[in-house]
Specification:
Elements: E1 2-6, H1 12-21, E2 26-30, H2 34-42, E3 48-55, E4 59-60, H3 62-71, E5 76-83, E6 87-90, H4 92-95, E7 109-112, H5 114-118, H6 121-127, E8 132-135, H7 139-148, E9 154-158, H8 160-166, E10 169-172, E11 182-189, E12 201-208, H9 216-225, E13 231-238, E14 246-252, H10 260-270, E15 274-284
Parallel strand pairs: 1-2, 1-3, 5-15, 7-8, 7-9
Antiparallel strand pairs: 3-4, 3-11, 5-11, 6-9, 6-10, 12-14, 12-15, 13-14
Helix pairs in contact: 9-10
Enzyme class: lyase
Keywords: Amino-acid biosynthesis, Aromatic amino acid biosynthesis, Lyase, Phenylalanine biosynthesis
Catalytic activity: prephenate + H(+) = 3-phenylpyruvate + CO2 + H2O
């Protein structure tokens, strides 16, 4: 049976993983922090890790990207997109007003993952400006803390699945600032993902420019442009070696098995760039 590491049960990662694997028998192993998710696959305890890497509202999840680059050597085997729908979760009995509906003034503190919290900034500012905000390792952890501390007027931001898992109430559904809030997930591990097929393939690479080559980034982009290789993302991140030293995280909408992409990579290596292949993999879009 396939073993998959991910953030806690009831989190968006949990829902997204189940969407990808469908009816395939999978043993899900849950961890409270992303470092343990990665390390379980590095050690061989699990076959894959599920990593949230990018969000419509918040952009890249830098911590997860840095782990993928600096801490582990696990190839990307698939990517998929899943809607991130956040809800305000707590105990209606603690927060109900005279009419029986939630009275947000009774909520004193809100818990959630920092990315999920940031996705609901407008709602928090309008309805819960008085409430203290505390970030935790996952949305499910926030819900669990609320469950284990009744009587404090605490609430959490998380998924419907997390609310059901811990037996709490949904005080306000869909509190995300934007309706088109999606998260891009990566499946990383040593074995190719073959359970589903996709007509769309992508390749992710890491490019470090030569320090003594003016215009190197322009030449890198030109190598892809004249071959009509589309870049779906390019992002600079510090190499952590010295101030002002950066690498470029580039997602390309083409498989490494084509003729054009290896030729483009060879061209940029010829000018002194260091290129690391992070993975060439199927890409699955969200289907409503």
């Amino acid at each position: 049976m396939i073993k998959v590491a991910l953030l806690p049960a009831g989190s968006t990662s949990d829902e997204a993983a189940r969407h990808l694997f469908g009816d395939t028998p999978v043993e899900y192993r849950y961890y409270s922090v992303i470092a343990d998710v990665f390390l379980s696959t590095v050690s061989g305890e699990t076959d894959y890790s599920v990593i949230p890497i990018e969000n419509t509202i918040e952009g890249s999840v830098s911590l997860h990207a840095d782990w993928l680059v600096h801490e582990v050597d696990l190839p990307i085997q698939a990517e998929w997109v899943y809607p991130s729908i956040q809800n305000l979760i707590g105990r209606l009995a603690e927060t109900a007003g005279p009419d029986g509906s939630p009275d947000f003034s009774k909520i004193t503190k809100v818990f959630s993952h920092p990315v999920a919290m940031a996705q609901c900034t407008r709602f928090l500012r309008e309805y819960l400006p008085h409430a203290e905000r505390e970030t935790v390792g996952s949305t499910t952890e926030g819900i669990r803390i609320v469950k284990e501390n009744p009587g404090n007027g605490w609430a959490a931001i998380g998924t419907l699945g997390g609310a059901r898992l811990h037996g709490l109430d949904v005080l306000r559904a869909q509190v995300t600032d934007h309706n088109n809030n999606y998260t891009r997930f990566l499946l990383v591990g040593r074995e190719p993902f073959t359970l589903r097929r996709s007509d769309k393939a992508k390749t992710s690479i890491l490019v470090t420019l030569p320090e003594d080559y003016p215009g190197a980034l322009h030449q890198v982009l030109s190598a892809f442009a004249w071959r009509r290789i589309n870049l779906s993302r390019i992002e600079s991140r510090p190499t952590k070696k010295k101030l002002g030293s950066y690498y470029f995280f580039i997602d390309l909408e083409m498989s490494l098995e084509t003729v054009l992409l290896p030729a483009a990579i060879a061209e940029i290596e010829a000018i002194g760039c260091q290129v690391r292949i992070l993975g060439s993999y199927p890409s699955f879009a969200w289907e409503t």
